[in-house]
Amino acid sequence: MSLLRLENINTFYGGIHALKGVTLEVNEGEIVTLIGSNGAGKSTTLKTISGQVKPKSGTILYNGKDITNTPPHVTAFDGIAHVPEGRRIFPRLTVKENLEMGAFSVKDRKVIEERMERVFHYFPKIKERLHQKGGTMSGGEQQMLAIGRALMMQPKLLMLDEPSMGLAPIIVEQIFEIIHELNEEGMTILLVEQNAFQALQIAHRGYVIQTGEIVMTGPGQELLVNEQVREAYLA
Ligand SMILES: Nc1ncnc2c1ncn2[C@@H]1O[C@H](COP(=O)(O)OP(=O)(O)O)[C@@H](O)[C@H]1O
Ligand SMILES: [Mg+2]
């Protein structure tokens, strides 16, 4: 069943036509990746879904409901977690406080503790750093914290914007393993990446976006061996 569906989405920044009739869907239980070069419209796609940016036309359906033009705090409440490009953790708050911010809508202390334990299961390093300021952590740890913070809201749909950006290969490997594990446990994931090779390896399906248009789609394994994809993104 389709959890998320974008139909013919057009998004503008002033005169810049950033998304040109984007249609894509994410089924429940899938990892879907959206790959493309810098400036192709990947982040804009996620921002349009979470409601940070309003599309000029088109429809976004989530869980059967029209969420086009729904503001970010409402899409978050509905279970869409958006881990933005560049992580954006709160540098002056402690790691623990950062995690708590992810569960802002939860009042029950016990539920918060349980969710935090779950995050430690995926990211044991976070537990060691709990009382440290977020900003003092390495890039990889901050990315883990950003994902951990998103997990604190127990999302139905986890959207990740270039989680591998600027990280050492070994850390990227770990992060992709965790994305894979989260999905194995049932989480639906929309993964935006310039790192097409890694993303296609773990994705059930992929979409290629080029200057605001979806130009190709197919199973991850097929795109991985596709000549055009290889030439443009895997060289
Ligand atoms: N806030 C903004 N104001 C104006 N143009 C923007 C803004 N954000 C993105 N753009 C433009 O929209 C296009 C898509 O950008 P973006 O979605 O960030 O691409 P990607 O994430 O694939 O690198 C680019 O041409 C970019 O310059
Ligand atoms: Mg981007």
Automatic annotation (TrEMBL):
Q: SMART domains attached here?
A: AAA (SM00382)
SUPFAM superfamilies recorded:
P-loop containing nucleoside triphosphate hydrolases
Q: Does the keyword ATP-binding apply?
A: yes
The residue ranges of the ABC transporter domain are 4-234
- Which Pfam families does the record associate with it? ABC_tran
Domain of life here? Bacteria
Database matches in InterPro entries: AAA+_ATPase, ABC_branched_ATPase_LivF/BraG, ABC_transporter-like_ATP-bd, ABC_transporter-like_CS, BCAA_Transport_ATP-bd_LivF, P-loop_NTPase
Q: Does the keyword Transferase apply?
A: no
The alphabetical list of record keywords is: Amino-acid transport, ATP-binding, Nucleotide-binding, Transport
Q: Which is one GO molecular function term here? A: ATP binding
Q: Which GO terms describe its biological process?
A: amino acid transport
In which family does this protein belong, per the annotation?
Belongs to the ABC transporter superfamily.
Q: What is this protein called?
A: ABC transporter ATP-binding protein
